[in-house]
Amino acid sequence: MSEINNVIEFRNAVKDYGDFRLDKITFAVPEGSVCGFIGQNGAGKTTTIAMLLDIIGRDSGEVLLFGEPVDGKHAHLREDVGVVFDEMGFHEFLTPKQINAILKNSYKNWSEETFFENLRKFSLPSNKKCGAFSRGMRMKLQIAAALSHNAKLLVMDEPTSGLDPIVRNEILQIFREFMTEENHTILLSSHITGDLEKIADEVVFIDGGKIVLAGNKDDILEKHALLKCSNEDAAVISESVTVYRQEGAYGAEILVNDADACRRLYPGMVMEPATLEEIMINYVNRAKSSPAG
Amino acid sequence: MKGLIIKDLYCLKKQFVMFAFIITGVVAVAIMFVLSEQFGNLKETVTGMTEAGFDIASMVKTSVMFFMLLPLVCTGNVADSFADDKTASFYKTAASLPVQAEKRVLSKFVTAVLFLAVGLAVDVAMAAVISSVSDIILFSKCAGTLVSLSACMLIFMSCVILLNYAGVPSIYSTFIPLGIAGILILALKMKDIVNALTSDDVSSVARTFRALIHALESRPHIFILIAAATAVVCWFASVWFAKRKRGVA
């Protein structure tokens, strides 16, 4: 049996800003997978990604990229990482042609042919200043660059937010094409969980700077379910399987974290599969309603 | 690192327009100066004033030097590239490139030196032309002054780079070194300045000024050494800040 290599590993990583703390972040992204990194705005997704890319240091814990520590000394690791940020990150007066000149002198494996081919594929002009690009075009430009140096890992921070469904779908298709190579991996941060349900194999859910859930997406979706019942019936549901319950005039809706057990324990109750969005919202609501949260 | 230098050159490219404009102006003024000094009004003025006992030659020389410094000075706005990086959030992109912090910082210094070299080359070429057709300036002294002033510019630019890495907003980083230099000069020569203001005795200030001009003309190696030492210290300090903060372009 072949060993599964983790391309990304966070081990109890901590970053404390005083008013916000990433608290003992621990998760791993296996090679060949698409990992959806979900959480509401301000949950800590961008800070976690910044830590992974060495944009910020950490206070304690370990972060490994391709098995090597991210500690400000291993810049060569980023040769194999393509990065897409929520903002373009290039100067607005630069043209894609000029960006090519910058990046071909930054990456050893930069391929001009691939870059210009990507520009053509994404219908991006090479001589137009990118300040004139729409948000969708800017994202595509970043993706074109990220895919032009033979990266094995794509790290993307909210690449599809603010984009219309057609462009989002195009971008997801680009990611699917990238994943046809078996050693390719994607870490995709987003609060648009619908996109991740389409593409992700793994899911990491962060809230308030803490990892709430991490694991295989299908396992997470199988384990969780929405139990719909009357308010009286809701009272008998065990707290140990309840993530969050919402009671209203017409009955209760309860997110449970052990769907199999609930099917056995409460055979008469209606159970519906939960989406990632519903899971995320219920966990966030639980954190808000808990005494600490 | 080369990629980042190219990026900075693109950032500073817009200054080429201003640079070209200033060069054109300075060349035009220099031509007029030379022609006038040899055939026109200036020749008569110089002759007349010199006969009247004024050191007009020094004044003419200082004026020419002042114009010639403009191209050199306008190559020194390295703070612009930091401001552009911040506007574009380029620091994140830079941090995602496979380039060590040391090289990221070095790229800023290399860009600054490249720009400075362009300004110096233009000025030296102009000095060579003017000194070959006119007696206003001597090439050896003029070249010495230009090299010394380039070294001063390098000291200024190194401080600007350091201040930007230290997190000082780029709009202030340009003025802080100038302000410190001004305060230092005032502090060192306060007595002479007060004297000049209260008793109209400008001789000590003039003496200091002449001594400075003489040092610039004849001791460029000292300025180069100070500039090199400052650049090295600023580079180390900038790297320290860049590593501590991480993600600085």
Concise synopsis of the structure shown:
The complex is a heterodimer of chains A (about 290) and B (about 250). With about 290 residues, chain A is an alpha/beta fold.
Total strands of chain B: the figure is 0
Number of domains of chain B: 1
CATH fold descriptor of the largest domain in chain A: Rossmann fold
Average pLDDT value of chain B? 79
Order of helices and strands of chain B: HHHHHHHHHHHH
| SS-based class of chain B | mainly alpha
- Would you tell me the overall average pLDDT of chain A? 87
* Helix-strand category of chain A: alpha/beta
- Which chains make the largest contact? A-B, 33 and 28 residues
Instruction: Give me the Rg of chain A, rounded.
Output: 21 Å
Shape of chain B: globular
Number of helices of chain A: 10
CATH architecture of the largest domain in chain A: 3-Layer(aba) Sandwich
**CATH domain class name of the largest domain in chain A:** Alpha Beta
Rg over C-alpha atoms of chain B, rounded to the nearest angstrom: 21 Å
Oligomeric status: heterodimer
With strands numbered from the N-terminus, the spatial order across the biggest sheet of chain A is: 6-7-8-3-9-10
Indicate the proportion of strand residues of chain B.
under 5%
The backbone outline of chain A, from C-alpha atoms, is: elongated
Number of helices of chain B: 12
Question: What is this structure's SSE topology?
Answer:
The complex is a heterodimer of chains A (293) and B (249).
Chain A: E1 6-16, E2 21-30, E3 34-38, H1 45-52, E4 60-65, E5 68-69, E6 81-84, H2 96-104, H3 112-121, H4 135-146, E7 153-157, H5 165-178, E8 185-190, H6 193-199, E9 202-207, E10 210-216, H7 217-223, E11 225-229, H8 231-234, E12 242-248, E13 251-256, H9 259-265, E14 270-273, H10 276-289
Parallel strand pairs in A: 3-8, 3-9, 6-7, 7-8
Antiparallel strand pairs in A: 1-2, 1-4, 4-5, 9-10, 11-13, 11-14, 12-13
Helix pairs in contact in A: 2-3, 3-4
Chain B: H1 2-39, H2 41-51, H3 56-73, H4 79-87, H5 90-96, H6 101-133, H7 139-165, H8 170-173, H9 175-188, H10 190-199, H11 203-218, H12 220-245
Helix pairs in contact in B: 1-2, 1-3, 1-6, 3-6, 3-7, 6-7, 6-12, 7-11, 7-12
